[in-house]
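Input.
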Amino acid sequence: MKTKILEKVQFEETEKKAIHVMTNEVILADGTVHPSELSAMKELQEQIGMGPDLIEEARKTTVEDALVSLHNMSYPKKKVLAQILEDMAISDNHLHDNEMQLIIQTFKNIGIGEETE
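Output.
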């Protein structure tokens, strides 16, 4: 994961949980969990400040609830999220079609592409 993008923004707890949910969905989208994806997820959790308790809460968060939280984020945070999801999708050195479709649908659901800077 690229650390520079995460230096620019501070996520709230609900946003962190939502990011965890959607990055996990990206990891699962191709039907295989690669060790490199698990490493990337662990690194992301550390970079955005997710401790064990928050990770456990995130595991109980639904995709629908996550999308609501992500939709309510500011545009700059959504841009960082887009980079996070892309980085997670390619962390196994392969961008699977299911991952790309999930990311595109997520962008539509949270309003990326509808706003301008």
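The chain has one domain: 11-110.
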